[in-house]
Amino acid sequence: MVLAKVVGTVVSTHKEQSLDGAKFLLLQQVDLEGKNSGGFIVAVDAVDAGVGEYVLYATGSSARQTKRTDKKPCDTVVMAIVDQWEVRGTTKYNKNEQT
Amino acid sequence: MVLAKVVGTVVSTHKEQSLDGAKFLLLQQVDLEGKNSGGFIVAVDAVDAGVGEYVLYATGSSARQTKRTDKKPCDTVVMAIVDQWEVRGTTKYNKNEQT
Amino acid sequence: MVLAKVVGTVVSTHKEQSLDGAKFLLLQQVDLEGKNSGGFIVAVDAVDAGVGEYVLYATGSSARQTKRTDKKPCDTVVMAIVDQWEVRGTTKYNKNEQT
Amino acid sequence: MVLAKVVGTVVSTHKEQSLDGAKFLLLQQVDLEGKNSGGFIVAVDAVDAGVGEYVLYATGSSARQTKRTDKKPCDTVVMAIVDQWEVRGTTKYNKNEQT
Amino acid sequence: MVLAKVVGTVVSTHKEQSLDGAKFLLLQQVDLEGKNSGGFIVAVDAVDAGVGEYVLYATGSSARQTKRTDKKPCDTVVMAIVDQWEVRGTTKYNKNEQT
Predict the structure, then answer these.
(1) CATH number for the domain harbouring residue A30
(2) I need a labelling partner for C86 at 20 to 30 A (CA). Which of C38, D42, D82, E68 fits?
């Protein structure tokens, strides 16, 4: 999985029918400090994530292993909202300590 | 999924038989401003997209989860035509406002 | 799928048994002008492509969706020989106009 | 598979339900000398690996071929803890010789 | 598939149980001249390849399509030992002509 931040949304009216109701999120990949690391990707939201939240996304066939993406032409899914991460014992991000 | 712009087409007469009738589109990957970001890829069209339109494409086994690509040797599919996207509350592209 | 040019072949006597009879092609990835863009890959040939031809290849599980690659440890297949491609209305390559 | 070092953990309370109980590890990719080579990824732990250990991770659908990840939206799994590796007859790392 | 050279081995005692008995090889990717091109990867050996040999490896779900890797958390497999390759009619490598 990849650590990313939700930065926006994509709207599509005309799409493969099985995707009706899917919500597309724009995600920016981040480094271990939570800073934008350059790449971005579009994912289907499986967990009601919002703009500004840190999330994990999964790709490939694993992106179809959620209730909202099963059997759909979706190769990227947000499957977790991140509360906290730490590197070598140091907390790099804690959702509850954000101001 | 990846945000891209349809820039052309590829024609192939001699191909795996299951692909008869498939339409191959040339897609250029774009950045969050909609500008060409360097890479391109060839996709099967599942949604009747046209040259000049912004689209989303899916890859891998997920590219076979459309009616037109099921069980075919296709690893990239255009599964949505993009109407609009926004980043941190700012609309970066709106199809209806293009001139 | 990726646009590439067949530039050579690979011979392997000792391989997973299910691959007996498979023909391995060396492919060089090309840009939209048909020029070598740096990368290369080895693919199983599903369409009797020859050295010098432009082709499309598919990767991942989609590379097993041809008669010749079904259930085999093959992650890249040439599934189409390219006749022509065009970008924004301009023909970049036409097989019949080559000399 | 990719050689990596466990450097941290990620905590997520709100995630796809099938992932309840999954432990997310932060992995840094390493070179043949065991040094950080730049990239990092988040994986589900299938083998009780700890921070500081060298591991192998597998991606894609293969990341779901463990008891802990079967049918889950997980595209990266730690499936082995590394004891030793050698390159051209030279031992580059041996877990028992670390101090 | 990717052309690579076997340069070493990785030993893991503690791993997902289904991988018991699997032999992990360290592979270095090579260019069309057979020279190290920078990247390396760890693969399960399906064909009894040895250090110093040129091989092909397959990735993703295709890496599970061998007798030794079926249903295992393995995303990279050595499925062929290379005897020879040629580029535009020139033999770049022939195993029998090595000294």
Answers:
(1) 2.40.50.220
(2) C38
